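For the sake of transparency, this paper describes our internal protein records without simplification. The record that follows is passed on verbatim for readers who wish to inspect the format:
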Amino acid sequence: MTELSLVEFFAIIAPLPILIAAAIGLMRIQWASKQNRYIVLLVVFASISQIIATLLWWEQVNNMFVSHVFTIVECYLLLQYYSFQFEEKAKRLIKIVSWLFVGLGIVDFVLSYNNWNMNAFSKGVECAILIIVSLITWRKTMVDMSESNLLSKPFFWVNSAVLVYFSANSLLFAFSESILSGERTIGLSLWAIHLFFMTVYYSLISIGLWKMPQK
């Protein structure tokens, strides 16, 4: 499979786990806690954004502005989700960070050459923030939960998704401009890797949404 066809393959299948996650979230939203509703909102917004981005990509229309908007919303919703795992002082700090990132994302959106380039800076900052928060909560989760019930907790799956995805893509986002301006085959291969981990990301989130207890 050539680099181009590999990217096309993942571009076709990448929306599927997002749509599946959104469908599961909407079907089970009546049982979702206030915390888990942030993840439902995330996957619904992600499905809409991915459909728009994919349609623009197939029409060979620049879709980078979708990434700018989605990054802001994604990081905000995930940090609001994580805030439920902390005590009051830490919760307030995370909410402050979420709003600061919104401001940063808007500035990056405005200044990024009419929004036609990839938002590498805000993506890199998002990765750093979420990796740190997910590692902190991972340790807290392992202390608070026994092995017997760990896999039944929605948070375990969502946090695993965040840690795997943003860790795998942190270098891609941080150095995306250099990658895209370099050899085309390398850029396409790395983009295919990104799409692969995005598929893993939403698949794990889907499991987490399915694990939400029915009341």
The chain has a mean pLDDT of 84.
